[in-house]
Amino acid sequence: MGLTKQYLRYVHEGSFNIIASPNCNVVFVTLKNQEGRFLATGASEDVIIWDLRLAEKALLLPGEKHEVCQLSPNHDSSQLAVAYTNGSLKTFSLDTTDVISTFTGHKSAITVIQYDPLGHRLATGSKDTDIVLWDVVAECGLHRLSGHKGVITDIRFMSQPGHHFVVSSAKDTFVKIWDADTGDCFKTMAAHLTEVWGVCVMREDSYLISGSNDAELKVWNVRDRSDIDTEDKDKLSEQLNQLLLSEDEPDLTSPLHCDKAGSILRSGKGRVHTMVNDKHRQILCCHGNDNVVDLFYFCTKDESSTRCRKRLRKLKKKEKYESPLHCDKAGSILRSGKGRVHTMVNDKHRQILCCHGNDNVVDLFYFCTKDESSTRCRKRLRKLKKKEKKLQEEQMEVVEENPVDPDDTEGGKGKPELVDVVKRLPTIKTASKTGKIKSVDVILGGGGEIRLALLLNNNSLELHSLSLGGSTDSVRHLRSIHAQGHHSEVRALAFSSDNLALVSACASQVKIWNRPSLSCLRTIDTGSYALSVCFVPGDRHVLVGTKDGRLLIVDIGAGEILEDIPAHSQELWSVAMLPDQIQVVTGGGDKSVKLWQLELVSVNREADEETKDVSRSHKVLSLLHTRTLKLEEQVLCARVSPDSKLLAVSLLDTTVKIFFLDTFKFFISLYGHKLPVLSLDMSYDSTLIATGSGDRTVKVWGLDYGDCHKSLLAHEDSVTGVTFVPKTHYFFTTSKDGRVKQWDADNFERIVTLHGHNGEVHALVVSPSGQHVASSGSDRTIRLYSRTEEVLFFISLYGHKLPVLSLDMSYDSTLIATGSGDRTVKVWGLDYGDCHKSLLAHEDSVTGVTFVPKTHYFFTTSKDGRVKQWDADNFERIVTLHIQVVTGGGDKSVKLWQLELVSVNREADEETKDVSRSHKVLSLLHTRTLKLEEQVLCARVSPDSKLLAVSLLDTTVKIFFLDTFKFFISLYGHKLPVLSLDMSYDSTLIATGSGDRTVKVWGLDYGDCHKSLLAHEDSVTGVTFVPKTHYFFTTSKDGRVKQWDADNFERIVTLHGHNGEVHALVVSPSGQHVASSSWGASKQAELLMECLATMKEYEVECKEMTAMGKPPPSLPPIMKALNVTSPRDYLMTVLSRIRSTELEEVLLVLSLSQVTDLLTHLSSLLDSSHHRCELVIRVAVFLVRIHHGPLTASKELLPVLQRLEQLASRRVEEIRDVVGYNLHTMYFLQRELEEKESVQMFLDATLEKRTKDKKKRKRENAKKTAIISL
């Protein structure tokens, strides 16, 4: 029997309220040939380009599912690279907003992306510690740079004549330089003691700057090795002397030479958060934990020389006498001791240096004499000469130190230092007092104007400007973008009565939005944290409930608060209008629910300033408190039924109490949730109430008797919102898992899961017409969904008594055939889901059903070892096609069969007794057999009929040539057996699903594993490719069906619908339909009820046969199919097959009469010696606890309950005795082995137990001491 329902689909219409995501950076882009006007920001999964002049959205680059984490434009801003948290990367054209290319190469979120100066290559760094170089033109990967041991924090491209390099920093405290052409790392700089958060390359790639947790930015002078060789002899000799002071071997083969030029001290506090430079690499910008941005200007060579000459000239005028000593830094000595230096002494000859730190280590150093130093120097230079043949002999000679005279500038010997190169610019502070800087970007204009964009964590942007040569007064705050969104997360939403306006409330603001345009109409400051909101009839006023218990009446037109009412003494969690539209109900943390009456009160207007005439009084809206309901716990939510008869209140003690609205008299309590109910709502006809709790469940109750119709495990985290669609029994739920789901309260099925938030969902609202749904979350977005005319169809097929093990659909997608463990095959119609025919196909479970292409013929396989062919039109075993069939079984063999037509005589006609002539029917001819070493789990032939793939019980997949059965290749990698496999239509890929929860994609050319995907949370039971594509579906015991792309190894979608293990999956030949089968809790409940009914019928038949003096009848067919010998074993088999997590849900479905029958059978199970008595006792205890009242009120059941109690107590004592006996036997064996081997066994467990016992004794002693002191 099939059940078909149809619904109208809700689609995502748009997102608003978000200006910029704090988890993404901001970058300047060039549009319409205007530079410095447009700013690109990440907005959840989208990218918004803002026009800073008009403070409007100029462009939107839509995303799909994952949140944007990094942005980077190319050199001419024609393209924008966008990185996502799933490790993928897309490049967009800013002219057409089209996706140019997509790259997938990282396992986790991308932390940094960077274009090279020409825009031909792209570098990405991720949390997986890898760097990938991409060719943007060829749209392929070039190199994977692996070497860092921490998260990649920054990447920069650097060029030297004939070479291209990549500089990277990471949390492993290292800065690495890579060759972009070969992908090799040739230099690692370990100058920082903590994480390196950023690197920049400045002034024609001659300076490298790195920032860490301290206030010091380290500056490195970067030069090509060939340039060093052409320098003067004195400079080279000085560098060689510095190398000789170090114990490390000098790197003379590196193409780059990096020496420390100095440090830059920044004024910001804390670690470096962002360090960027302009595209000309002259402006360096960085910020820390505070709201201060430091700017530095790197002068050109001419400017540096001019600053150097001026500085030296000032020094010459300032010094009145020549210093008698000249001191310059010769180098550093690293000691092995830890901590600070405590003592540092030398001998009287001043040759031995001794020092020690915090540990017990003393470092000794010997200062050689001049002769010894010369000898060591000659040996060292001799080694250098052998290693580096490029250095000439005269350059290797060590000369005496000849320092440069700083006063001798006329000869040109004075060279610019770092202080001459770097010029500190005025610092910039944020204009916002509440926001904190998360990202910055800088751009240098043609007129020397510097523009700086700031992204703040309060969902706002700021644009600042200063002149390159100006002072602090030249810093200007040009513009802020903050009105288009809330400064904090939106906590409450409400629709107007005409569905055209939407109100949202956050920590300190209330905003009114235009739904069609998604634009902000009005912003009102509330002054306190808003928790709830609703429109007043007329849509001109809004009621706002705050965290301090105040109830605000806001005038939308005037944009001001009319009245501030101290409604509650604690949080005001709930505000709602009553159906009569003149009363308001509020619930707060002060354990009270209050009713209010809307009224108009007269207020005198202020006197006119010019005429001093007081106008007549006018009326404004106010609230009159009418009644108060006091409760025992804090109120989390309060709602009134649409018929204005009942008041439902959710309390902090996990209960929902329902009162009569007119008298506040208690009606009923709803128990069942394990955590407090955060949201509730009632249906339009006041017959149902849905409650969402922190225990992740949604329960649907009847308002007539308060009975729980269904408990749904709706989400993976706390349910934060439940709202019914007006005039239907459909309702929406939201959760902290970021999902928005629609449900049907009549059949308790999930209709659809909407594209949710990238974080927790805080609020949900449905428009009065039911046409629109809005939700808000921690990702700062308000998402709007609208109902379309597209119809969703759901067909459920019921009828099998045991799980469906295989299914398939016909080529024209009109029929579906299912094979079950009950030995039957059912043929269904896909139009209405009706069962055309039920065939008792085999003598054992049907394990496979497959349609023949372009026909309605199908084959079935079974555990009885037989293969049968059927006609789905007349339901007979007749076909007309000649094809081959491959079968694989547990007898360690794979067999090939040939279909052939054989002549068969028809049966004689019953009336004429005439035997008709013979006719031809299809039969199977066994052709070949392939013997293997292990049991065969799955066998498939490639679409080109060349290869045979077989999965074995030893976790391997072996591939053979089909024509000769010659071995081709083995696929190794799975840790558990491969349960399913399939090959792509072009015979180039094979996907395997295993019990280890992974799906691996292999190439059929060399058998290499392209990708290993952790696809599910339980064993993968099915893998099937979509015809003529590289997409494939997977099913698992976790109850999910997922679609994957075998080319870029991404999950496309996750299909929901099953509440239990998914056993079978099939894709129609057209690829338009997918069918899957499972065995959920409802099906298990049906099997248990069928078991009780079958046992009852069989007992009646046995009594009748015994009364007639005949032997007992044979077991029913269902018992024979399960290979049981008695009804008692049949019941035990059914109970054992119920999943432990679904057992209680299955037992709740049983009626009272079925519970009575089950308890009677449970006593007989306990009376017999059975190894599953724990399961039987668990079932009995749960049933007695749930149905305690009716069971104890029945005099007929009292003997049964007493007998159950006696048997359960006896069985528990027996189990306890067995466990105790085994435990002490193990202790005895342990002592014997320890005495024999002279070693203590289970040492770790023993020590852990002793530690726990010691802690337990300490707690007990502390309790005793506390009691005595009291």
From TrEMBL:
Name the keywords, alphabetized: Repeat, WD repeat
Extent of the WD repeats: 103-136, 145-188, 189-230, 483-523, 565-599, 670-711, 712-753, 754-786, 797-838, 839-880, 971-1012, 1013-1054
Q: Where is the composition biased (Acidic residues)?
A: 394-409
Q: Where is this region: Disordered?
A: 388-415
GO MF term list: snoRNA binding
CDD domains, per database record? WD40
List the source organism. Answer: Diaphorina citri (Asian citrus psyllid)
Q: Which gene encodes it?
A: LOC103509185
Family note: Belongs to the WD repeat WDR3/UTP12 family.
UniProt protein name = WD repeat-containing protein 3
